[in-house]
Every structure is written in structure tokens, then in C-alpha cells.
Write a structure and sequence with these properties.
Length: 254
């Protein structure tokens, strides 16, 4: 299995913090966000390669950060206007690295409690399918900002919509996906049809009517770090867990 971390965005909502530091390398709980994500990926014994895809503007920062064994890919874009998008970046990595294997995909701004090893075990019970991690946000108002799903009694997706005006449920898909090796060519098919390359969840929305996609419900906490308040909340939560003092305002200082 190969892991791909999507880190090609420009995090415009977090400017000026992200003018000089890419969002996945912002410190949370005293360590870059990506450190926590890599620790989670490290729980999955099947993962034998980890790839991080970013843009030309921040590629040097990721290369300076990257621990041994992590491959950094520069997608060749330099502005928010010419970005490839999450699905475009995923295709970029698959093509450049020649990936022909099962695939774990994680967004580079996701922090979560659940075990990726448990997630993979759940997925293996539905051999040959795709899977998406699900979090019940518990509030229809919050749900309007996420990709919302419905599942049947066997946890198979029966509905998926990005950021609905009237959410039918509070079950949110987080940007953590598993794809079986035979499904990788479908990414080319999705893009060849002219579908939007930006939001990673759009691929799942396109895929679930065509092939089985299962939802893994997890307990615990999840932080989708999109704005300054979410960043501060995530930082303080991780600081509490690791014996650091909380902060009233976010700072780039660790």
C-alpha cells in the first residue's frame, strides 16, 4: 500500500500566516501538522511508501522538513489560481511515482484521533471497494460546510453531496480515503469526463454510484483546519494532550 498526503493548497483563509509557511507545516501542539499525520500513517504496517504532494511555491519548505522515506512531489503550480486541485494532485503523484498499488489518501490539514490501522482493517473486510472515513458532526448547521453522506445497514454509501444547503444528515466525510488498486484508473476516467479536479470528496461522489464505497464511522475528535479559530482549537487541544500551556491566540512559535 502507498500513502499520499495532499498538501498542494494555498490556504488563503489563513493568510497572512500562510504567506510564508504552508498550512500542513504550521505548528500544532509544538509540531508541524504533518508530523501528526505521518505518525498516524506509521500505524499502518502495509504502507511501504509515503508521498507528499505540494506546489512550487512551498516545495523547498517540504523538502527541508521531510524525514527519511517521505517523497516530496512538486505539482508545478505557483498560485491559487493555477492549482491542480486535490484530485489533480493525486493523479500527478500516481503518474510520477508509477503507483500501481492500494492507496491511502489523507488531506494534509486533517487531524484526527482514530487509528488508520483500524480503518484499513475495516476496509479489508470489503475487499476491492473504496472507503471514506466518516464523522458525525452532530449539527445540521455545521454539516452544511462538509461533504455529507448517507449509508445503508452495511455501511455502504447511498448518498454523497458536497456542502448541501439543506443537509439530510450530520454524517460528514473527512478527507481520508482508501482505494483498491483496480480503482486507480477510474481517477483518469473521472478527470477525462471534465469533472472538477479540486475537492477530493468529489471523486467519491462520482464513484459511489458506480462501485461500492464504504463509510468508516469513527469516534473521538477531528479537526478540519480551515480558519484561524479551528487552528487555535486544534493547537490548544494538542498542547493539552502533550503537557504544553494553552494559548489565547495562535502563534507560529512552537
Amino acid at each position: 500500500m502507498k500513502a499520499v498526503v495532499l498538501a498542494g493548497g494555498y490556504a488563503t483563509r489563513l493568510r497572512p500566516l500562510t504567506d510564508d509557511v504552508p498550512k500542513p507545516l504550521l505548528p500544532v501542539g509544538g509540531r508541524p501538522i504533518l508530523d501528526w499525520i505521518l505518525a498516524k500513517i506509521g500505524e499502518v504496517a502495509e504502507v511501504d511508501e509515503t508521498h507528499v504532494v505540494t506546489n512550487s511555491r512551498f516545495a523547498a519548505d517540504f523538502l527541508a522538513w521531510a524525514p527519511a522515506g517521505v517523497v516530496i512531489h512538486d505539482d508545478g503550480t505557483s498560485t491559487n489560481e493555477d492549482r491542480l486541485g486535490a484530485i489533480g494532485d493525486l493523479k500527478c503523484v500516481i503518474d510520477r511515482a508509477g503507483i500501481d498499488d492500494d492507496l491511502l489518501v489523507v488531506a494534509g490539514d486533517n487531524l484526527f484521533d482514530f487509528s488508520l490501522a483500524d480503518y484499513v482493517r475495516f476496509w479489508r473486510e470489503h475487499e476491492g471497494s473504496a472507503a471514506v472515513a466518516l464523522y458525525d458532526c452532530g449539527d445540521l448547521r455545521l454539516a452544511a460546510g462538509y461533504g455529507i453522506v448517507e449509508v445503508d445497514a452495511n455501511d455502504r454509501l447511498t448518498f454523497f453531496v458536497e456542502k448541501p444547503e439543506s443537509p439530510p444528515s450530520t454524517l460528514a466525510a473527512i478527507a481520508t480515503y482508501l482505494y483498491a488498486r483496480p480503482q486507480l484508473p477510474l481517477i483518469d476516467e473521472y478527470l477525462a469526463e471534465g469533472n472538477a479536479p479540486d475537492q477530493a470528496g468529489s471523486l467519491v461522489a462520482w464513484l459511489y454510484p458506480r462501485q461500492p464505497v464504504y463509510g468508516y464511522r469513527f469516534a473521538g475528535e477531528w479537526f478540519d483546519i480551515g480558519d484561524r479559530s479551528q487552528l487555535l482549537e486544534a493547537d490548544n487541544r494538542m498542547r493539552r494532550l502533550h503537557g504544553l500551556s494553552e494559548r489565547a491566540e495562535y502563534s507560529l512559535e512552537k
